[in-house]
């Protein structure tokens, strides 16, 4: 039975807003990376966002959990969902276009389906999902550029780093379901960002030197955007859209992010992506829509499997 919720006008508006906010984060991070290192950018992203979310949670009547096991789960979630992917993707943005990073980031949903199927019996890889995953992986390969598989340079390494970040996001989804699903979203998000901050600060200090607050105004504007708006604010908006639209419809946000990132990169950073990047994104988008189940072909595959 199809239990996917119908998207209302308000849900569509907030979904588009969420995609726009997250799409703009790639541009803001690129601006900040002109003055600070990738790991330091993660510190600024998680620390300020954690403070804002804890303030919101406390004002909403929530209190920090006292169970040490929950705080251990926060550390694991912060590592998988923030520290590793934020750091890898920020480093990747030093060597490849922000628009390409956003396209490769869309592979999160593809890896998420595969990893969930490995860990959870109720997330088995059906024929429809297998078709969507295969098409998505092919799209990623095309976006990277099939010729790049014949050589290996810093650009290739940057693209692999971004993809490794998406794999970490996928494992984070498994971790969240296993250890944090019983917590209110506000507490889960604030605790996760606290955990990642506790990891990011010493790592960035050792690798890139002391964290300084003496930064250019444009850098602070970029940090303020990607930390307070595109991280703290976006997490709160994410859970609003999830409640209204459901997880299936929420996957559509993945398709809304790259056009924003590509447009900003072209307009303000002088970036130009190859035709293969756009073709790859189209294939990846088609794979995601098949995974989502909203294509008529996907529904026929499901029915054929059910009748067999």
Question: Would you summarize the structure shown here?
Answer:
This protein has 308 residues and is mainly α.
Total helical segments: 12
Question: Could you give a short account of the major beta sheet?
Answer: none
Structural class of the secondary structure composition? mainly alpha
How much of the residues is beta strand, in percent?
under 5%
Low-confidence residue ranges: none
- In total, the number of domains comes to 1
What is the number of strand segments?
0
Helical content stands at: over 70%
N-C termini distance:
17 Å
Give average pLDDT, whole number. 92
Please write the string of helix (H) and strand (E) elements.
HHHHHHHHHHHH
- The global form is globular
Rg result: 19 Å
Outline the secondary-structure elements.
Blueprint: H1 9-32, H2 38-59, H3 68-93, H4 98-105, H5 108-119, H6 127-144, H7 154-179, H8 185-208, H9 217-250, H10 253-268, H11 275-292, H12 296-307
Helix pairs in contact: 1-4, 1-9, 1-10, 2-3, 2-8, 2-9, 3-7, 3-8, 4-7, 4-10, 5-6, 5-7, 6-11, 8-9
Written account of the structure:
- This protein is an all-alpha fold and 308 residues long.
- The chain has one domain (9-307).
- It is 78% helix and 0% strand.
- It is built from twelve helices and no strands.
- The protein has helices spanning 9-32, 38-59, 68-93, 98-105, 108-119, 127-144, 154-179, 185-208, 217-250, 253-268, 275-292, 296-307.
- Helix 5 packs across helix 7.
- The longest helix is centred in the C-terminal third of the chain and has 34 residues, at 217-250.
- The model has no long low-confidence stretch (mean pLDDT 92).
């Amino acid at each position: 039975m199809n239990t996917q919720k119908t998207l209302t006008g308000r849900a569509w508006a907030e979904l588009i807003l969420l995609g726009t906010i997250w799409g703009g984060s790639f541009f803001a991070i690129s601006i900040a990376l002109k003055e600070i290192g990738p790991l330091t950018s993660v510190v600024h992203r998680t620390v300020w966002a954690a403070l804002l979310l804890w303030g919101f949670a406390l004002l909403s009547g929530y209190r920090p959990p006292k169970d040490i096991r929950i705080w251990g789960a926060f550390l694991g979630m912060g590592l998988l969902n923030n520290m590793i992917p934020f750091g890898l993707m920020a480093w990747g943005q030093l060597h490849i276009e922000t628009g390409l990073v956003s396209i490769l980031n869309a592979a999160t949903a593809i890896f998420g389906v595969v990893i969930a199927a490995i860990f959870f019996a109720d997330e088995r890889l059906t024929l429809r999902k297998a078709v969507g995953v295969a098409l998505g992986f092919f799209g990623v390969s095309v976006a990277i550029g099939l010729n790049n598989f014949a050589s290996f340079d810093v650009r290739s390494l940057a693209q692999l780093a971004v993809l490794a970040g998406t794999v970490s996001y996928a494992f984070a989804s498994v971790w969240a379901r296993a250890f944090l699903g019983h917590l209110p979203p506000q507490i889960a998000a604030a605790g996760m960002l606290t955990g990642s901050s506790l990891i990011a600060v010493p790592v960035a200090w050792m690798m890139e030197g002391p964290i300084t607050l003496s930064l250019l105004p444009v850098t602070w504007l970029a940090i303020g955007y990607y930390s307070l708006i595109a991280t703290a604010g976006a997490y709160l908006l994410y859970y609003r859209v999830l409640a209204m639209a459901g997880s299936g419809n929420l996957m559509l946000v993945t398709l809304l992010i790259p056009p924003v990132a590509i447009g900003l990169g072209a307009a303000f950073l002088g970036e130009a992506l190859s035709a293969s990047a756009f073709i790859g994104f189209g294939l990846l988008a088609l794979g995601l829509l098949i995974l989502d189940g909203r294509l008529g072909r996907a529904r026929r595959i499901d029915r054929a499997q059910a009748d067999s």
